[in-house]
Inverse folding.
């Protein structure tokens, strides 16, 4: 998605995967056992949310970019037509709902015709190398919808790891993976997944295995090693889920990105 600002300035950090849960307000992990989709062996769940309640768990997530409930500008103001409103982020029926609908507002001097939802992790833990990140997501099919599941450095941009994004889900039937190492170095974006499958139909599991200095995207338990990105900096990352609206897009009111669960795993040594 590009450009998440400094977490110090924004009070934004991510999911911790490099050790046990710290004492800074971490919630109890959900009762999930097993291993990441498509992997074998013995793993520990380091972070997870099954979205089984009736509201967003504020001990885990914030429904905004900067920690304020007043609403935020999008990540790419020149390319997007929706500002982020906490009211567009809800939890119901066992899923996280990020909803795009008309809601004109001027933010930072720009007028946006739509509002939509975003979540990113609270400063409980940080995503680092040696972990598997995955989420079960239902992507909307709507004109100009730009759904994304990604991770960005907490202290600067880049680096960035885009587990999946659909640049316009009315046209894209497969997700794209991208690794941005620096302003001039990137791998992708590149589509992955079965070309015969319309991945906008129903839930699919999007995963990322960050093994040392390389990352491999997974989709429904299938690895795509031909897209492996190398030279990934081992720096703290924050995990983000959002439904953006591309400039000029016209999604039907109520278009939703649904997230069944998010899980982060570490292999047992």
């Amino acid at each position: 998605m590009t450009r998440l600002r400094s977490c110090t300035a924004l009070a934004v950090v991510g999911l911790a995967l490099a050790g046990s849960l710290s004492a800074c307000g971490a919630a109890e992990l959900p009762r999930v056992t097993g291993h990441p989709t498509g992997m074998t062996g013995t793993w520990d769940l380091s972070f997870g949310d099954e979205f089984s309640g009736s509201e967003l768990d504020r001990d885990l997530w914030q429904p905004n970019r900067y920690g304020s409930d007043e609403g935020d500008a999008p990540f790419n103001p020149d390319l997007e037509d929706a500002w982020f409103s906490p009211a567009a982020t809800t939890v119901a029926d066992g899923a996280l709902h990020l909803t795009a609908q008309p809601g004109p507002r001027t933010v930072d001097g720009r007028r946006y015709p739509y509002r939509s939802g975003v979540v990113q992790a609270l400063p409980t833990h940080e995503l680092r190398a040696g972990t598997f990140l995955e989420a079960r997501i239902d992507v909307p099919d709507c004109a100009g919808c730009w759904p994304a599941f990604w991770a960005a450095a907490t202290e600067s941009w880049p680096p960035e790891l885009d587990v999946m994004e659909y640049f316009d889900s009315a046209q894209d039937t497969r997700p794209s993976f991208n690794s941005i190492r620096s302003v001039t170095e990137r791998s992708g974006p590149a589509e992955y997944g079965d070309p015969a499958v319309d991945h906008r139909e129903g839930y699919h599991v999007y995963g990322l295995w960050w093994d040392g200095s390389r990352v491999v995207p997974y989709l429904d338990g299938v690895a795509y090693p031909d897209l492996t990105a190398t030279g990934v900096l081992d720096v703290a990352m924050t995990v983000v889920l959002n439904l953006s609206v591309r400039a000029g897009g016209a999604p039907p009111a109520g278009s939703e990105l649904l997230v069944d669960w998010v899980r982060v795993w570490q292999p047992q040594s």
Summary: The radius of gyration is 17 Å. DSSP finds one helix and 17 strands in the chain.
